[in-house]
Amino acid sequence: MQRVTIVGAEVLVGEEGEPRPSTVVVEEGCVAALLPPEAPLPRGPRLDGTGLMLAPGIVDLHGDAFERQMMPRPGVHIDPAVALLETDRQLVANGITTAYHGITYSWEPGLRGRESCLALIETLQGLNGRLACDTRLHLRFETYNLDGLEDALGWIAARQVDLLAFNDHFAPIAGGTMDPRKVETYAQRAGLSRDGYAALVARVGANAERVPALVARLAEAARAAGLPLMSHDDESPAMRRDYDALGCGIAEFPKTRETAAAARELGNAVVFGAPNVLRGGSHNGMVRAADMVADGLCDVLASDYYYPAPLLAPFRLAAEGLLGLGAAWRLVSSNPARAAGLDDRDTIAEGKRADLVLLARPEGGAPARAVATLVEGQPVHLAEGRRLAA
Questions:
Q1: Which of 123, 328, 367, 388 could be 317's S-S partner, Cβ–Cβ 3.0 to 4.6 Å?
Q2: Could you tell me the residue range of the domain that residue 159 belongs to?
Q3: Residue 209 burial (10 A CB sphere; 0-12, 13-18, 19+)
Q4: What is the pLDDT of residues 77-132, one digit of tens each?
Q5: pTM here?
């Protein structure tokens, strides 16, 4: 489809991102023109947006819900290609047009171990051109994964990684500060008994003094490759400053308000989970994302473990009076795009990439939903077929 004209919608236009009636002409994958509603329409297919809102597509910097497609129950494994194709359908049906799959490479075996990580990367490459969503690799590298350093350096050199994050789930496990139920889940995911998992933790912890050098080397390689870097679950302002010094300009899920404030002082982008907004709080007792938004300490909302959340969270924030809808939508579109260096899809403007979502707003107790999703100008999701006409 070379050209499609979207008519009748309220459009979140330009930098200000506040809805106003406009006609949007999409051609050759980009926004070709923004016209007043009364302007003559060009020839070609039309997408009727009457009663809907047109917004920039969602850019999801961290989503790992695809893991549930790969392992729907502990010990039950699904072919990665099947899992990723099903995930792709979920993404575009929820208005996500750019997705950074959070693939964890851990010192643990099983779902987040080496073989699983290799299979996922190989499968993503094999599906190139078949996925509707612009799908990218967010490598979540566990800092105690000393044996995985050469793999990660090779992937970075081969341009297979699009975003690098430093994770440390080892320290809270070894220190006994992590919820024992969560540790049990990790053991099941790794395919180990509780005792077997405890023995693995002891073996990994014996090499703790080598971790800082690994992190520094990996960060250097990522900076040289021009990758955006983030650190995950920063526990303190000091930890955030340390990662910032390594070039990690994105703070993902800082655990305290003080840590988020330190990230803001450093000029970092601060990411929280959109499910945190929907649930009214963190599932593991950390800071409330809505409070961080209200205090100006949140730039980006990510799907984390639930793909519908980024579409729904902005409407929740607007309903609670914390932000206008345009500003709230920027948390899931233009802000994450800019944090990742994707300046071709941060707004609806002439010449920008036509990654767009037509939204039905919440009404009568029904939540917001994506009626149509376009990726690079092509409709990839259409819930109401009558809206597209020749």
A1: 328
A2: 58-339
A3: exposed
A4: 899 999 999 999 999 999 999 999 999 999 999 888 999 999 999 999 999 889 99
A5: 0.94
State the total domains in the chain.
2
| 173 and 230 inside one domain | yes
CB 370 within 8 A of CB 311: yes
Same domain, 16 and 83: no
Do 99 and 64 reside in the same domain of the chain?
yes
Tokens of 362: 């919440």
Among all chains, which residue has been given the structure tokens 């601060």?
A: 270
Domain CATH code at residue 317:
3.20.20.140
Chain centroid, CA 194 distance in Å: 32
State whether 142 and 209 are in the same domain: yes
What is d(CA 205, CA 296) in angstroms, rounded to the nearest whole number?
38
Tens-place pLDDT, residues 178-213: 778 878 888 887 888 888 988 998 899 999 999 999
pLDDT surpassing 70 at residue 177 = no
Are the C-beta atoms of residues 251 and 231 closer than 8 Å to each other? yes
